[in-house]
What we know:
Helix content of chain A: 25-40%
Largest interface: B-C, 86 and 106 residues
Low-confidence stretches of chain B: none
Mean pLDDT of chain A: 92
Helix content of chain B: 10-25%
Number of strands of chain B: 7
Shape of chain A: flat
Number of domains of chain B: 2
Mean pLDDT of chain B: 93
Oligomer: heterotrimer
Structural class of chain B: alpha/beta
Amino acid sequence: MSYEPKIIAFCCNWCSYAAADLAGISRMEYPSNIRIIRVMCSGMVHPETVVEAFNLGADGIMVLG
Amino acid sequence: MAVRIAEEWLHSCSGCEIAILNIGEPLVELLSVLEFVHIPVLMDHKYYGQTGEGKELDIPEADVGIVSGGVANEEHLEVLEEMRKKCKILIALGTCATHGGLPALMNNWDVGEAHKQIYQTVTTDACTVPDQNVPKPLDRVYALDEKVKIDLMIPGCPPNSQHIAGAILSLLNGEEFKLPTKSVCDTCPTVRKGKGDVKKVRRFLENAAYIAEEPIDKMRCLLEQGFMCMGPVTLAGCAKRGAPSCIIARVPCRGCFGPVRKGGNQMLDMMNALASNGIDFKSVIDRKNLLRFSGAHGLIRQQRPTE
Amino acid sequence: MGKVLTIQPVTRIEGHASIAIELDDNGNVKDTKLHLMSLRGFEKFIEGRPAEEVPRIVNRICGICPWMHHLASVKAVDACFGVTPTPAGHKLRELCQVMAHINDKILHFFFLAAPDFVIGPDSDYAVRNVIGIVKAAPELAQQVVKMRQLGQMMLERFAGKAIHPIAGVTGGFAKPMTEPERVGLLRDTETLLDFAVYALDFAKNNVFNKYLDVISKLGTITTGFLGTVDDNGALRIYDGKLRLMQPTGEYVDFPCSEYTDYLAEHVEPWAYAKMPYAKSWKEGFSMDLDHPKGIYRSNTLARINVCDHIGTPKAQAALEEFRAKFGRPAQFTLLYHWARLIELVYACERTIELLQDKSITDPNIRAKVEPKAGRGVGCVEAPRGSLIHDYTTDDNGCIVSANLIVGTTHNIAPMNMSVKQAATMLIKDGVYDQGMLNKVEMAVRAYDP
Lengths: 65, 307, 449
C-alpha cells in the first residue's frame, strides 16, 4: 500500500525550530510529509491542539522543544 | 399563517421519525399550525415531480427543515444541500445528524474494502459490490455540520420527543430554544458516595446490584459499582421519567446524546475521568467503542497499516 | 428509445428506495427496478466489539423495529457464550417483542398504508397521508395516535427506552417486572386488544371489502413463504422453528441455526440490499414473473400462510375467516394488510397471556455469563420477516465476524416482481398518471419495507 503518513511537528522557536532552520540552511533533506509548525514555546502546545490535529487528519504528532 | 416544514432522512434508521411521532397527542394539535410540505416517511412528495419527469432534485421551500441521519453517499449530500437551499432554518435531528452516530463506526475502515467484505458473507452468492444507479459512497460518514451550516442541533439516539416539540414550539413563538448543557450524571438520581475502591471497569456481563422494588434513587451509581457508564461524558437530555432512560432499565449509559461540550471527545474525556479517579484505563477492552455515537468530525479514523 | 419513469423517493415506507420503470417505444413497460439506496455496513463495524455490547448497537439498524434486532442479537450472543436465559428473562424478552409488534402494526397500517385506502389511491398527494386522515377523520385519527402512543409508552415505562432498547442482556433481562408494573401493563393491553379488534373490523368493512377488486389484482405474484411456528405448527414470533413453504403449500421445518443450508443471498448490481432466496429448492434465483425461481416471501402474510393455527382465540377466529376466503397459501399481495391486522390481534392476546402468568415477575432474570469463543445464531420474527443474526466470537467474547439477514430483505425480490406486475398491468400505450404510479408504490407498501 502506498500509505504516506502526515506528521505534524510543533517546534519551539528557540531551539528545535532554530535547529530545523539550520537544517534547511545546510540543505539537509527530510521527507515532505513532515509539516513544521513554529510555536513560541513547546509548553504552549495544549493537548487539545494535539487532539484537534489528529481529528483533522494528522497521523503522527511531534512536539519538540 | 402555518409554518411550513420539510423533513428528510439520510444515513439513518427512522428512529428519529418515530421520536417525532412519539410527541403523541400534542402532535395532532401542532398539525393545525404546521404545514408539512415534504416528509418522505409520511407524505408522497417526490424529488423529480409526481410523475418523475423532472431533471433536478426539488424540495419545496420551507420555514423549517429537519434532517436526520449523517451524510454517507452522494445522494445524501445532494438532498442535504437542497434542504439547506430551501429551508430558512435547518435542524439536525438525532446523533447521526449531529455527531455521525453509530454508522460513523464505519470510519474505522476503508469504505471500499469494507463493502467488498460485506458482499462476501457465508450466505452471499459470488458478486461485485452494487454500483449501477445506486448512490456512490463518500470516503467516510459525515455529520451534517461538516457539509452545510446547521442552525440547531437536537442530538439523541433517539432524540427526546419533548425536545423536538419544544424546538418547534419555540420557533413558532419566536423564542430561543435551549437544550440541556449538563451531563447525564447531573440528571441521574443514583447514589454517589464519592471516590470508591473501584480499580477496574467491568463489562456488563452481570446485572447491577439493586432492589427491584426500590426506586432508582436507592441504587448505587453504576460507575461506582464498577461498570463502564458514560454518564459523565455524555450530554443530558434523555431523562424523561426522573432518571436517564438506560438507568431506568438499570443499564449503564453508552453515550447516545454525544459529548457534553460541542467538539468534545467522549473517548478521551472518559479515559481522563477514569484515570483521574485512579481506575485502570487499560481495563476498557474496546476503547473505540466509546466513540460509537460520535465518530464523525474526524474522531474515528481509518486504521492504518502497522509495520 | 423509450423513456424511464422514476419514482423517487418511494414514500411512506421505512427505508430509502426508488423505482425505475422503463418504457419501450410504444409506451409499454419493458422493465422495472426497485433500487435500494442505502448501505450502512453493520456486519462490518460490529467486528471487534465485545459481543454483549452488540445488542445495543444493532438495534440502530431499524428505528421502527429496534426490539427485533435487539432480541435476535441477544439470542445470538447467548448462543455464542453457551448460556440459556432464565425462564423469567425469556418471558420478559418475549413480552417486549410482542408489545413492539403491536405498535409497529398500528403505525404501519394507519400511518403509512391507510391513506391509500381511506383518502383514496388517486387523490392528491398533499392530502393522501396521515395528516389528511387527521383532517378527514379526526376521531379515528385521535384514537389511532392515542393507541400507538399508549403502546410505545408502555414499553418506555417498563424498559426505559421504546426506541433503541437496552433492557435485553445476554443471559436474560436487565430489570425484573414488579407486581404493580404487571397489573398496569395488563390493564393497558386490554385497551389495546379492544382497539385491535375494532381496527380489524374497521378495515374489513371500510378497506378490504371495498377494495377487493384491487386487492385481487395489484402486485399479485406466486411465491413460497417463510415464517416461524412452534412444534404444533402454531404461529410464533419470538421463538420456534423456521418453516419454508413452497408455492404449492408443501413445507420443510428447520432450526434457525441451520439457515445456511436453506437460504442464500443473491446480489443485483443495481440494489445495495441483498436478495435472499430458497437455496434448498435447488432451482437457482430468478425474478421472472411467470417462472420465478427460489422466490419466497416473509412478513405478515407469510406467517399467516405457514402456520397451521394461531394459539389465541380471537386471532384464530380471524385466521379461519381469512383462510376460508383466500385459501392457503394466499398469494394476493395486498392481503399483507389483512394479515397484519390479524397479527395485531394475536400480539395483543399474546401480551395478555404473558402478563396473566404471574411467574413473569420472578426476580431471577439473568443467568451467569462467561464470555468465550463460539458461534451463535439468533432469530426472531420481525414485523417485516424472519430476522437472523449470526455471530462468531473470539476467546475474549469479541465479535470476529457477523452475518445478518434482515427481515425486509427476504421481500426485496418479491417486491421487484410485484412492482413489475403492477406497472405492466397499469401502464399501457404510454398513458400514465400520478394515481397509477402511486398504485405501483402501493404494491411495495404492502410489504412494509
